[in-house]
From TrEMBL:
One of its GO terms (molecular function) is protein-cysteine S-palmitoyltransferase activity. It is found in: Cell membrane; Endoplasmic reticulum membrane; Golgi apparatus membrane. GO terms for cellular component: endoplasmic reticulum membrane; Golgi membrane; plasma membrane. This is Palmitoyltransferase. The gene is ZDHHC4.
Length: 344
């Protein structure tokens, strides 16, 4: 059972890491590498298995489904069950501060609330009714977002900073990206909830990791394990080292060590993505705009596919108006009713 828990934890951490990397690093070079990898594996893997895998991946990442929502809640439930069942009880016996131990639960409540809002809130879907209102919210830069462009799928005029989501099959105002973990697009009207969700998820994972690490270190110090000695297979006497301590803790508290490894990996992955998301918020960019801007620092990268005669076009961010204004735009977004009042 312990090895099953370990397998699920680390399989999920790898999966979450791949999803975050796919969101953050959608470059032409990675697409080329993916195509090259697919060609190599096509010579090894049977065609029937390839079709099955392709169908599964298409269902998971290119259609709206609740698979990742269920996976998210199951993993969160497993972590907090283990934390409550073992870590919380042991720490109480060691007279840890109750406020310190209850902090992960407070973060969990805020996280689930913001997670729910991110899932169910309209991200800013553009319709015939609000099309004209959205056209006046942002200025067209004539490079990334030219005027008088219609969406070939929705047959609507595309406001600046909007994009058609192929998964949800609608155009979204200030489109950031489609998040499989919330089964929804991230746009102008739910980006604030998404940032709070991401912040509290990172904080809760880090807090559980810190509490669990503190417990294990406290246990080692109290029992004087680091001062013990052991005899190896050749009969030589050794002072207790870090590797042997970890092995001992692993055999004594396997589930806690499994959970600690998972939340530590998760903390680093989420922490990196959170920094990226906060950078975009502070500079008033979306993931879509950052990707389409082709990364100024990667313009001369030989791995980026570009026609030989094409000169790199430098995209200038015309929507950034200072940190305070940028954050206000995210946490107090303009709604169609506000725009209607302005026009009247």
């Amino acid at each position: 059972m312990d090895f099953l828990v370990l397998f699920l934890f680390y399989l999920a951490s790898v999966l979450m890491g791949l999803v975050l990397i796919c969101v953050c690093l959608k470059t032409h070079s990675l697409k080329g590498l993916a195509r090259g990898g697919a060609q190599i594996f096509s010579c090894i893997i049977p065609e029937r298995l390839q079709r099955a895998v392709h169908g599964l991946l298409h269902y998971l990442f290119h259609t709206r489904n609740h698979t990742f929502i269920v996976l998210h809640l199951v993993l969160q439930g497993m972590v907090y069950t283990e934390y409550t069942w073992e870590v919380f009880g042991y720490c109480q016996e060691l007279d840890f501060s109750l406020y310190y131990l209850l902090l992960p639960y407070l973060l969990l409540v805020v996280n689930l609330f913001s997670f729910t809002l991110t899932c169910v809130t309209n991200p800013g879907v553009i319709t015939k009714a609000n099309e004209l209102l959205f056209l006046h919210v942002y200025e067209f830069d004539e490079l990334m977002f030219p005027k008088n462009v219609r969406c070939s799928t929705c047959d609507l005029r595309k406001p600046a900073r909007s994009k058609h989501c192929s998964v949800c099959n609608w155009c979204v105002h200030r489109f950031d990206h489609h998040c499989v973990w919330v089964n929804n697009c991230i746009g102008a009207w739910n980006i604030r909830y998404f940032l709070i969700y991401l912040l509290t998820l990172t904080a809760s994972a880090a807090t559980v990791a810190i509490v669990s690490t503190t417990f294990l270190v406290h246990l080692v110090v109290m029992s004087d394990l680091y001062q013990e000695t052991y005899t190896d297979d050749l009969g030589h006497l050794h002072v207790m080292d870090t590797v042997f301590l970890i092995q001992y803790l692993f055999l004594t508290f396997p589930r806690i060590v499994f959970m600690l490894g998972f939340v530590m990996v998760l903390s680093f992955l989420l922490g990196g993505y959170l920094c990226f998301a906060l950078y975009l918020a502070a500079t008033n960019q979306t993931t879509n705009e950052w990707y389409r801007g082709d990364w100024a620092w990667c313009q001369h990268c030989p791995l980026v596919a570009r026609p030989p005669s094409a000169e790199p076009q430098v995209h200038r961010n015309i929507h950034s108006h200072g940190l305070r204004s940028n954050l206000q735009e995210i946490f107090l977004p303009a709604f169609p009713c506000h725009e209607r009042k302005k026009q009247e």
